[in-house]
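In response to the reviewer comment on reproducibility (Comment 2.3), we provide here a single inverse folding case reported in full, input and output, so that an independent group could reproduce the run without further information from us. The structure tokens appear first.
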């Protein structure tokens, strides 16, 4: 047994028996996205709404450390069913208060030896939550990164009767509107381009506006986010028609919603892909009832990973998309109380994991 464990840890290459000939050997890397659900430190920031996560409101240093331990446990296990030798080489993340909490996270004992580095910008979100990218510098080298702001505004029109009667979804991610400009401040979209073991890949990390006020009423905000995301994608395609792009995030919409289908122009079937298209493997999962968060006894798959057409081509001499999955381990699910059966969130001052399940995909490359 020890010899087998040694060999598994030593060799990066592996054989994919499920889909390919046994004679072909492949390298594999995992890319993941995880909504960290209110990863706040204990320090009260006077310019953001973080009072809930302060010692005076029960968010102690011990709770903060437990939250970091929980997240590091998930990170070290993500994707290890098919890639047992390593955790994700790239992780998109959201609901992060600042860079400091990420610096604390990557130093946690379970993942410190992975050498995760950070790409992070402060966004204008009024709760002070941001998106970020973690990467193992042994495998991925960023060459450029930029935060792209999303400009959306309250239209000032009165809601019609149907909109007034719409059920408002529970969320702590409420819309904040500037009283003078009417701008709705939300998260930027983070674009990071770099080399994954010598091959250029771009990652876009998203956390789109919430459904605060109701799905239909708030939909235009996410449609604008989808349009911005597509604009970023098209700019990358313009530079390189064979650009390899992974856009990922908590979109606060399902794969079949307008923001994704028309905004990003994401396609759910590989056989329908053409040049410059984007493939969304989460659409099939959504139709199968698979989700990443629960609400009113149903599941949504707001957390998505969408890849560019060049990544889906069957050219295994370069990094190629293999498959995507939702990470749903029993310890991530609440087994009692109000949220029984849903992801184990922070509750009553007790740190959980997240109210979202993480998602991940595999990239493979033939080595013989």
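Designed residues, in position order:
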């Amino acid at each position: 047994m020890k010899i087998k464990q040694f060999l598994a840890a030593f060799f990066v290459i592996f054989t994919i028996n499920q889909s390919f000939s046994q004679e072909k050997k492949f390298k594999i890397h995992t890319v993941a996205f995880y909504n960290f659900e209110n990863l706040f430190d204990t320090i009260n920031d006077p310019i953001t709404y973080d009072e809930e996560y302060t010692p005076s409101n029960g968010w102690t240093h011990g709770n903060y450390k437990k939250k970091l331990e929980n997240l590091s446990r998930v990170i070290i296990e993500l994707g290890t069913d098919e890639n047992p030798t390593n955790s994700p080489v790239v992780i998109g993340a959201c609901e992060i208060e600042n860079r400091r909490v990420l610096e604390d996270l990557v130093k946690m004992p379970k993942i410190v030896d992975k050498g995760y580095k950070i790409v992070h910008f402060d966004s204008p979100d009024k709760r002070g939550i941001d998106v970020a990218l973690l990467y193992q510098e042994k495998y991925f080298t960023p060459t450029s990164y930029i935060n792209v702001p999303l400009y959306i505004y309250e239209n000032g029109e009165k809601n019609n009767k149907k909109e007034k009667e719409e059920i408002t979804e529970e969320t702590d991610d409420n819309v904040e509107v500037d009283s003078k400009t009417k701008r709705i401040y939300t998260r930027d979209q983070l674009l990071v381009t770099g080399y994954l073991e010598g091959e250029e890949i771009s990652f876009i990390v998203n956390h789109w506006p919430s459904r605060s006020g109701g799905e239909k009423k708030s939909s235009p905000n996410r449609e604008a986010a989808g349009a911005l995301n597509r604009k970023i994608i098209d700019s990358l395609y313009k530079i390189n028609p064979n650009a390899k792009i992974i856009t990922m995030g908590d979109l606060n919409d399902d794969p079949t919603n307008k923001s994704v289908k028309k905004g990003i122009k994401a396609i759910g079937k590989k056989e329908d892909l053409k040049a410059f298209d984007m493939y969304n493997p989460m659409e099939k999962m959504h139709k199968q009832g698979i989700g990443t968060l629960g609400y009113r006894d149903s599941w949504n798959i707001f957390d998505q990973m969408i890849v560019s057409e060049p990544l889906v081509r069957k050219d295994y001499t370069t990094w190629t998309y293999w498959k995507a999955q939702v990470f749903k381990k029993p310890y991530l699910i609440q087994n009692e109380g109000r949220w029984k059966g849903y992801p184990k969130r922070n509750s009553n001052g007790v740190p959980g994991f997240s109210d979202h399940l993480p998602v991940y995909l595999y990239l493979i490359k033939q080595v013989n």
